[in-house]
Amino acid sequence: MAMGSVKHALDAAMDAARWAPSTHNTQPWTFSVSEQEICLRADPDRKLRVEDVSGREMLISCGAALFTMRTAMSCEGFEPVVRVLPDPDRPSLLATLRLGAEVQADESIHALGGEIERRRTHRAGFADVPVPDALVEKLVLAAADEGVKLTPVRSVEAVSVIAALTQAAQGVQAQDQRFSLEVIRWARPPGSSRTDGVPAEGYPREAARTEPHFPQRDYAWGHDWGSQTDQRASAATGVVAVLTTRGDSRQDWIDAGQALQHVLLYASAHGVSAAFHTQALEMELLREFMRQELCSGQYPQLIMRLGVTFDDKGSMRRPLSEILW
């Protein structure tokens, strides 16, 4: 195993992990390297202290970064050897990844790897183009590979209930100054040089209203921010899906993040994007209602809409030098 290829594989894995999704693009992770092993840690300074009191969303984001590193290592020709939560005395240490045996990744892994930097979060309605049922079933299998359940919500009534819960949570949060100030902290005005948060071009200035209505965060906060709406876009809701786990431990949250990124990369490789709605899951009463009434007792970790968009927005990530310790 050549040292040059080892260093290249480690660097490639950490560089790829920067592109994982995170709530408000907080990028709440740091990395360190020792010989042939990467340590993935949560960055508590980037935790959303109002929206994410438990740290659940932070660990889901870090789990997505973990899956990204696994994929990148495989694409570089090494089997990733992963230990999740390896040291109970160091709770911020979420995982270690070591380069294992040299392997030849198959086309499916390379297809996922090719989407790491291309995948984008969508924050509006989708084009009126259906997502094939066969693809949705593949996404269900992708989540299952990580021990997590992805459930497409086929019932019109259930979709309406989830939309109503999202509306209720967004309405309450919009009236809470603490929530509003936290969103503002991560909203970036036009021309900002920051490499984290949600840029002004990352959402439409005037989003078409989906039916039923799934509200987005108000990142503009009264300003005339946002991008021009693509004329090919519409108010299509897309396929509503819920990511759930049997338990609700830190391990479950990390697993949910790995499943999320597996689903997103597979979807992106087939021209499908995701819009996220975490508002209702940030309010414990609404989350528990969903668990009992809509999720068969499983714990909802993420609500998303899947669809086709013709937007080609850029994205921003912190340089590796800022997150490598």
TrEMBL record:
Q: Which SUPFAM superfamilies match?
A: FMN-dependent nitroreductase-like
InterPro entries per record: Nitroreductase, Nitroreductase-like, Nitroreductase/BluB
| Residues in Nitroreductase domain copies | 116-307
This chain's protein is named Acg family FMN-binding oxidoreductase
Q: Which Pfam families match?
A: Nitroreductase (PF00881)
**Taxonomic source organism:** Nonomuraea helvata
